[in-house]
Amino acid sequence: MSYSELLLFKRYPELVENIPWLSLGSFPTAVQKLTILEQNLEYDGIWIKRDDQTGELYGGNKVRKLEFIIADVLRRKKQWILTFGGLGSNHCLATALYGREHGLKTVLCLIDQPLTEHTQEQLLRFDYLGAKISYARNTTGAVLKGVWQLASKWGVYLLGPGGSSEFGNLGYVEAGLELANQIDNGLLPKPGHVYVPIGTMGTYCGLKIGFELADLDIDLVGVRVTERSMTNEKKAAKLVNKTAKMLQSFSDDIPEIELAPADIHIDHDFAGPSYGAVTDEGLEAQQLLSETEGIHLETTYTGKAFAGMLDHIRSKKLSGEPVLYWHTYNSVDLRDMVRKHHDFTHLPRAFHKFFKENLISYI
Ligand SMILES: Cc1ncc(COP(=O)(O)O)c(C=O)c1O
Known about the structure:
The protein is an alpha/beta fold. It contains twelve helices and ten strands. The chain folds into two domains: 3-61 and 165-327, Rossmann fold (3-Layer(aba) Sandwich), CATH 3.40.50.1100; 79-154, Rossmann fold. α3 crosses α4 and α3 packs across α7. Residues 60-61, 90-91, 162, 164, 197-204, 301-302, 328-329 line the site of pyridoxal-5'-phosphate.
């Protein structure tokens, strides 16, 4: 994809001068009707948006965000990206991987999350990709370590958790316009409801703006997967407004968008006891989608969001209109990276305790 093909720039050419962007992924991602699942649930019109296939190296929702973020890092001539996440963070992995492709080094401040096969794999992958990892245990620790890293390095670009910065969110503004185009081109009917996991909120807020710009009246449901203090209607409305304001500051053609918390639809019932905790509903959702359609969900984000959608379908909370699940988890097989690099003693000592027991089934 090139600059001139970006829907945001096509619609609002004045943005080109002020908004950095580079191509990392393959777009548009496919939309697909889940016919076997439809039969299983006796609901006509269940669709999926395959953002698991956004990139050849690594897919998932981070690729769209990083197209804007990495371009901004390069524009500012920084050599390091400092960012934050849980021990198994997909955002951290995507940043390390695509950053490396562009000659950037990454420092990751990692906080605790429940230990699973996935978290062990991610830690090994961070190290394989040459990221510098620092164990911060909790959010306060991450802030302190981050400040220390910032002070000790020249040319550092500070990136918040999940890449949900004003620039990062634009990846999903573009994605909202992309879906509108696919509807216009007859690739799918207009969904009445779209489901997506909501964590640091950039995916949700970007889509919300994209749908507004495209005049798409869709009930966008974020299924919360992180703590409520971090992910809630008030903060999401604020992030939408802040991102929209930045866009408006660059183009008079962009309409004013000023949302209130009541305009945000978050389902809080599927997060489980903590971020990263495996829930029964998430596992059931994972099993059902795998058995019916052969599509893989994980347990921290996508299993929970899919469980939310299943519950709404089964309990007949929906309008009967088509529903679309926006799949945000990578589906590129990265097991080889772990096979090649599985000696955890290469990691800083603080991480060795997470490998007391090997949870990875294939090494
Ligand atoms: C697979 C997956 N889905 C959804 C999300 C949530 O996206 P956001 O942080 O933009 O709300 C993440 C964030 O890390 C993720 O890794």
